[in-house]
Design goal:
By secondary structure, the chain is α+β, with helices and mostly antiparallel strands. 37% of the residues lie in helices and 24% in strands.
């Protein structure tokens, strides 16, 4: 510290605080949000903490200062979390008759309230036609006669009552032999599933949507200096997510078939609910993704909150995130073989 000027001493002080916060955030996967809900807020900030600590590491390294060791040490401790933030995979997509592809896409009510200037139903239809996934899991889906997937014979959905009926919908080209709905304690749908046949095998596909934080609107609240309100919203949301994930994870554990779990988790890969839902499954992005894999169109930093998890015995060939600006989420597709 003696060899640092005042500015560098100040920067190292900030570096130390942010390194400690990042280190603490690595522990959040093991802590129930219901125990420390305010602390769980940090799981959403891990991406920015990773970026800042990486920048500090580069800064000190360029200046040939030993202070680079601090951020390097923390980043090495969180090696798996760093890899879950940014991937460089050399996997090449292998297509064979046995290959299965699954898409997850939060379609944001097909632009019901004209958030963007686009013919969203038609554009999403065209995108799906170009990719031809075997199974499609949609969140915030609403029925509209302008969105008809004629190539998908099997469909299963659970939509809310009311003027704007929306919810979860799954479409499959593969024969469906069973289907079901998973509800929370207050009887709202939090997941649906289908059992499909592929030759002699039966697979279970889960489509899930956990409680939303409504990030954009809550940041607007924060801008209005109403921090207590946003903390209460996050507190409640974390607790609801924990309860939802507990219910779904128990259902997954009792599945008689190997599973593929995908959907909008509304939380990051550094959270307790992600770890709970992942269990012994494999994250397709970790196996075959590239780049940041951001799935939520968040203007501040990359946010990966949509996932495709699957049985560890499957061979994951490919994972892609598509920069389709037709929703506040980006579609993701993974291909695999049994």
């Amino acid at each position: 510290m003696k060899n640092l000027n005042f500015i560098d001493k100040l920067l190292y002080f900030v570096n130390s605080i942010l390194a400690i916060l990042l280190l603490l955030s690595f522990l959040l996967q093991f802590i129930k949000p219901s125990l420390f809900p305010y602390l769980s807020f940090m799981s959403l900030s891990v991406p920015i903490l990773l970026i800042i600590n990486l920048l500090f590491f580069v800064y000190w390294l360029v200046k040939l200062k030993k202070q680079f060791i601090l951020s390097l040490f923390v980043l090495l401790i969180g090696y798996n979390q760093v890899l879950s933030f940014f991937k460089l995979s050399d996997n090449l997509e292998r297509v064979s008759p046995d290959t299965i592809s699954v898409m997850s896409y939060n379609v944001r009510l097909f632009n019901l309230y004209n958030w963007i200037d686009s013919d969203v139903e038609n554009d999403i239809n065209s995108f799906i036609d170009s990719q031809e996934p075997d199974v499609i899991n949609m969140q915030e889906y609403r029925f509209t006669d302008r969105f008809l997937l004629e190539n998908y014979k099997f469909q299963h959905s659970s939509l809310s009552d009311g003027k704007t009926s929306y919810g979860l919908a799954t479409f499959s080209k593969l024969p469906v032999v069973n289907q079901g709905i998973i509800k929370s304690d207050n009887q709202s749908t939090i997941a649906i599933f289908i059992d499909v046949k592929k030759y002699s095998d039966t697979l279970r596909f889960y489509n899930i949507h956990l409680q939303s934080f409504k990030l954009e609107s809550e940041l607007e609240i924060l801008d209005q200096n109403n921090s207590d309100k946003i903390l209460n919203i996050f507190d409640n949301t974390f607790k609801i997510q924990e309860n939802q994930a507990t219910i779904i994870s128990k259902h997954i554990e009792n599945s008689p078939y190997k599973v593929v779990v995908s959907g909008d988790f509304n939380n990051t890969a550094y959270s307790y609910v992600y770890k709970l839902l992942k269990g012994d499954l494999v994250d397709s992005f970790d196996s075959a993704g590239n780049g940041f894999g951001s799935t939520y169109n968040f203007k501040y930093f990359p946010m990966r909150i949509d996932f495709i998890l699957m049985d560890k015995t499957f061979r994951i060939n490919d994972f892609k995130t598509f920069n389709q600006n037709l929703s506040d989420h980006f579609p993701i597709i993974s291909t695999f073989n049994l």
